[in-house]
Amino acid sequence: MVKQKFWEDVNVNDEVTPLPKVATTLMLVKWAGASGDFNPLHYDAAFAASQGVGSPIVHGALKRQWLVQLMTDWMGEQGMLRKFSCSYRAMDWPRKMATPFTPEEGDTWHCKGKVTKKYDEGGQHYVDCDIWIENGKGEVTTPGTATVVLPSRS
Amino acid sequence: MLPDEVTKFIGKSIGTVACEVEKGSIKRFADAVDDPNPFYWDEKFAEKSSHGSIIAPPGFFGWPIKLPRGMTLQTPAEIVDPPEVAENLRAALAKAGFWRVVDGGIEYEFFRPVRAGDVLTAKSFIKDIREREGKTGKMAFMIIETAYHNQSNELAAMARATAIYR
Fold first, then answer.
1. Residue B31 CB neighbour total at 10 angstroms
2. Half-sphere exposure of A11 (CA within 13 A, CB side)
3. CA of B156: which chain A residue's CA is closest?
4. Which of A2, A77, B63, B69 is deepest in the core (most CB within 10 A)?
5. pLDDT digits (tens, 9 = 90+) for A81-132
6. Beta bridge mates, B17
7. Residue B21 vs residues A9, B38, B74, B102: alpha-carbon distances, Å
8. Contact check, Cβ <8 Å, A68/B110
9. SS3 category, B33
10. Mind listing the domains of chain B with CATH numbers?
């Protein structure tokens, strides 16, 4: 994990360290099992086609969890994630597998964030961020916000 | 305007479910996200930290969450449900022309870390259902609010999930 970030080191408009992610059909299967979301929209080609999405799409909540990791990585060991929100505005399709272990060439998604506010409240030091995921074309598919508590040097 | 048959469900509880947060299921969840954070994987590291134990990634509240009948044989630790509320609501929405549902998004507030070994009780109710006009026609936006309490009855987290019916 990275060096601990302190509240004093953060400024409004700072960029949250970007987090690249690749969604693959393997990852979607792991997510279905781990989260309990067994909707065939995310693994069954015929069902997904019948629902008008073409082929199986990435679970919204998996994208949400990427954004959670964006913030937990950035806030460090002593940080705490206090609030989080995101909307699944657009669909994303996973890369298929070329071998049992490696995906085909294809899109990489980029989780990003930007500090919008920093403040004290009830003795704790808060930082608000806008967060989002950009798909392979650079379009924002999953916008959101997050609030973390950071340790202070004071 | 959504019919009364649908809006009468606003404020209704859709169930209480208790799930154990197991160390193994935390790892499986972190693996599915491809998140190597040692808080989820490394017991020695986690025990030495201020948390004192392996914690769940924010957003993981135990498995299995309550799943619709027929999806799994495994059942959560305890389910307390008002009889068939969720099914009746889905039927009322279908009758009003809203057949398909997608996950629209979520809001969380995290109050306490969730530890491996915790048993979380998730209590959900329908906070709101309202009609919205979209590119593909009318949609019904439903907000489900869930409070997660741990075994010491401390509030661990609150969630507000949006389900979009069309």
1. 17
2. 2
3. A82
4. B63
5. 999 999 999 999 999 999 999 999 999 999 999 999 999 999 999 999 999 9
6. B79, B122
7. 35, 17, 14, 26
8. no
9. helix
10. 4-165 (3.10.129.10)
Of B20, B49, B35, nearest to B114 (Cα)? Answer: B20
What is the nearest CA distance from B89 to chain A, expressed in angstroms? 19
- In A, minimum Cα distance to B65 occurs at A36
Pick from A76, A30, A66: which is nearest to B39 by CA? A76
Chain B residues touching A85 at Cβ < 8 A: 105-108
Domains and CATH numbers, chain A: 7-24+60-97+107-149 (3.10.129.10)
- Sign, CA torsion B50/B56/B62/B63: negative
Alpha carbon distance A58, A91 (integer Å): 7
pLDDT at B85 (0 to 100): 86
Residues 6+ positions from B107 with CB-CB distance below 8 Å? A83, A84, A85, B159, B160, B161
* Closest Cα in chain B to A28: B32
Q: Which of B21, B25, B34 to mutate to test the interface with A (most CBs of A within 10 A)?
A: B34
Quote the pTM value.
0.95
A77 touches chain B (CB under 8 A): yes
* Residues, chain A: 154
Nearest to B8 by CA among B100, B126, B135, B159: B126
Question: What distance in Å separates residue A90's CA from the closest CA in chain B?
Answer: 10
**pLDDT digit of tens for each residue in chain B (166 aa)?**
899 999 999 999 988 989 999 999 999 999 999 999 999 999 999 999 999 999 999 999 998 777 776 777 777 777 877 767 888 999 999 999 998 888 999 999 999 999 999 999 999 999 999 999 988 889 999 999 999 999 999 999 999 999 999 9
Chain B CB contacts of A65 below 8 Å: 32-33, 35, 57, 59
